[in-house]
Amino acid sequence: MPPERNRTETGQPGQGKAVMVRADGVTKTFGRGASMVTALDRVSLSINENEFLTLLGPSGCGKTTLLRLIAGFELPDAGQILLDGQEIGHLPPYQRPVNTVFQSYALFPHMSVARNIGFGLEMQGRPASEVAQTTARMLALVRMEDMADRRTDQLSGGQQQRVALARALAPHPKVLLLDEPLSALDLKLRKNMQIELKRLQNETGITFIFVTHDQEEALTMSDRIAVMSAGRILQVGTPKEIYHRPSSRFVADFIGDINIFAATLEKTGPDGATVTLPGGGKAVAQVHAAGVVPGPVSVAIRPEDMHLTAAEDKSAAIRGRIGNVVYFGSGNNVHVTLADGTEVIVRSNEAGAVDSPVGIAFSPGKLQVLED
Amino acid sequence: MADARRPRTMDLRKQPGFNQIAWLCLIFLYAPIVVLIVFSFNDNRSVVRWTEFSLRWYAAALDNQGIRNATIVSFKVASVATVFGTILATMAALATTRTAPFRGQTLSYAIINQPLMVPEIVTAVSTLALFAIIKQLTGLTGIGYLMLAHTVFCIPFAYMPIRARLEDMSLTLEQAAADLYATPFQVFRRVTLPMMSPGIVAGAMLAFVVSLDDVIITLMVAGPGETTLPIYILGQIRRGITPEINAVSTLLLGLSVILVTAFFLIGQRRR
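YS: structure for the whole thing
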């Protein structure tokens, strides 16, 4: 068993925890001249030993490029990539103790399941007995013992996925890179594999870097999430931090349902910032982004961090009229239209009558000031 | 009812006259070959009048020293041309598909495929002229010239299926191997080569058949005692068609059928 590590609750790697991968000012461009695309723009990121870190972002945000740079399939234009303290940015893939699970699995079609899994060890020149032993252990780890002699094209998508995982884990890399490995699976299988991946990471103690555009997947599995957009890392933090304290409008909008509306920042104090909300009400909002100054700002709050009250209730921060009520099983999404026309979604057990006036109260400490 | 709801794409087989045209095409393609085969078994000197079944022309053909020598020359030349042509074609295919895109890549395809586009008689005459100069300068003679000429025109035929195969193969597999600690040579040996081998086999077979079949370039380049089978047949036909020629041609046909079948079976097993 790997020693239980103290998972820090902040976005920064904690003191005393070994940094496994460090990207330092990494820039990568493709093409040249007018058609040049900057895939990564001075990206810096530290990933700890035995951490499950997810690179999350929409397609084209640079998350896969960063993964390929760590794997060695691309070379950085500028910046350094350090693995366990060693600069590896210039090394070819076969000299990096890092293995990849590809989106397409990339299993060798001319080899059996067992040969696929043993390939890395064989290339490292390990003795045949060790290759056989480790292969058997890996087959058991991913519960594919009966399939050792199958051809890979006789396997289902989920089985291919598990072989790809076993193949990448067999040489016991320092870091396992996973490039949207679950995107080809159906929903039920994907849910199972999410749990399976987490179990494998715990059992092997290997650092996982996982690329996905699926925010739910990221929230479920990660120790920390790095949200990326347009070649930059916008925020790094635990799933809770990313979900409850998004620093920017993009992060807030990308993850989960959120209400964003215009407000005016009056002053900042030790307990947070005082903002004036649409309709004139005042509230205290948390500021996590640097460089927020008094004036017009955007504030955000999750639908589940608000509740409906009577329109005349003093605790209501904002007031409006109920528009739509959408029932989704475990509750309702109540759409409330404010006086200035802004629509706000509140999660609520009671539905309330359509077109009736209503007040909305905020749970303390949940309102966030966003960096635009 | 179900048929009526199918998307209405044009089904060529349902067009009037489709069957008739298809059969006519097949008959035109295969009638000459059938006639050739049938009359190779005719117990008669005539190649137009059937009398009775016999294998005498096969015996005669196998007994004919001229045919034997020509066959040996043909196989020697075709084997050498296939081996070297396929190796060079494989290298060319790797260089044009497994390297970073480079300026003039399209031009390189055109240059490699040049012999397919230049009229063969032009290649033949120019090869003859070039070899004449080399012979003059070095004084060297022999079958090497014929083998070299065949190797050269076999390259584009072998190149095409190999390149097609490589273009179908995802680069991700090679990246996966490199990721799993395979050095560039190991990647080639363990992944690229086994995966491209159906293309190489197809290319080699095409090269072999093309070499075996060649007349024009061989006619120009071949020296005395370097008569290949097609050249021998051509020479015999000038003196009138004999059933012996039918028998030899049928044997050649049988060989190519065996080659194609073998390739098909190899391909099936790999699937």
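YS: worth flagging: DSSP finds eight helices and 20 strands in chain A.
IM: good catch. Also Chain A has a mean pLDDT of 86.
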